[in-house]
Write a structure and sequence with these properties.
With about 200 residues, the chain is of the alpha/beta class. It has 5 helices and 7 strands; from the N terminus they run E-H-E-H-E-H-E-E-E-E-H-H. Strand 4 and strand 5 form a beta hairpin.
Length: about 200
Amino acid sequence: MKKQWVLATGNKGKVKEMSELLNSFSIDVLPQSQFNVSEVPETGTTFVENAIIKARHAAKVTGLPAIADDSGLEVDFLSGQPGIYSSRFSGENATDRENIDLLLSRLEGIGSEQRSARFQCVLVYMRHELDPTPIICQGTWEGSITESIQGENGFGYDPVFWVESEQASSAQLSKQRKGQLSHRGKALKMLVEQLKEQLA
């Protein structure tokens, strides 16, 4: 009998990615939308706090173990902004394009040596809503911000995130290559390694 875990996201891509990684453990990863779990206000001031809020809420509503992630972009010239507000940088319900346009306008006239940035991803696994020792994994992906949009793959800030080793933006990479390099890919690998010990 497969175990069921809930993933605190409505993003189908994230659900598929997580399902593939945990399939070998006989775990079915289901999106929280399948259980009518409402979105919970992200009132934390860090990626870790927000991921815990989301995981705890999903575990509480479903009674299942839950995984949540919180991720975003940190730009050094902007003192780490947009950070935890990445998805709503230009306002609630902002589109990716609106967020990118605001970011590029904030960096207008700034030289390439000052455009360093990184994606952060924090993944949290909670066995139940009161889990006092959740597993927390963090992945980081270093890069810089381009001056214009490049590429059509990915989502969020991918078209303006330059990956030096690939001489391409994140939105120009194949899905497989992005998975190997990305902040989420790194955090997922760490999570699977730690879960192996728990599930062995």
